[in-house]
Amino acid sequence: MSESCQSRCNPVVCQVVAEAYYPGGLEKHFIEMCNGLARRCAVHAIAHESYREHLDDTVIFHPLDLSRSRRNPRLLWQLARLLRSLDADIVHAHAKKAGYILSQVARLIPQKTVITLHNLTLARNWMKRVDGVICVSKTITESLPGLSAHVVYNGIEPGNTDQTFTYPTPGRKVLAAGRLAPAKGFDVLIEAFRPIDAHLYIAGEGDERKRLEALASKAGVVDKVHFLGYRNDLPALIEAADMVAISSRREGFSYVFAEALLAGTPVISTDVPVPCEILTEEFIVPIGDAAALGKLIQYALDHHDEVTQRFSEWFEFGRRSFTIEAMVENTCGVYRQITGLSSRKRV
After folding, report:
1. pTM confidence score
2. Which superfamily does 173-321 belong to?
């Protein structure tokens, strides 16, 4: 590392993502990481042009389309050349594709390198070519034997406190949210809702919508299962619900779980990260088990006050752990460990 880098008070960070922008968890994390870090240190962002409008003006943006093959020689050359031109101390790539691409050029650039893995994966030799690995859940670290990985939970920007929402139906309300895709298990949740005396609201959009609407009709629950489409007021929806249900078949980090704890709304979940790492077993059900899921939802609704009180310690955990500030501070801790540089707030 250069003498100028060593003498600098604040590290210069370069964030990299390969996918074009989509309103999903990975993209949300990348944007919030860039903007959060920019309040502390100089930040470069290498990403598809579609990210530009979502990044603060303080982030130095370098448009580069990394959606081509991860083994494309021209792509690797372009990234290595760009990184060599930046006076950055550490390069941080997000998700497997960007991580793999960074690992291929790691020996050609002067910076230290780190990758964040957002989903369960097998340990690969290419992961050993970078200087550090961050995982968004403990479960992911456990799937990587032989790698020294750091756990940094994702953070969430505070919701708009002026936003409120009132559900249009009387009675108890359960909210589920996420992209309408098989991984989210909404088909299991709809089946689980057959005997439940409550309304289920599903916030999100995706290719599975027509199939899920057909399943609701077939299950005879169209009068109590409501599809809200894509929403930008999820915190308000969560706060107005009696509880949140997570039916996912797989997760890397459940933003809905974090949002629920921050809103003070009880949540039950299938056995996926991060709920399985924080909640006790009484609020976790096996993946794909509609009967167990329905039984737990009914219990949580019937004992709402008791369950809410039981969650008080987890609500406090969420307020401490699932903030942008906590995510940035913990990430900076990893940077300090890898580079040896301090990470003081920008003055």
Report:
1. 0.86
2. Glycogen Phosphorylase B; (3.40.50.2000)
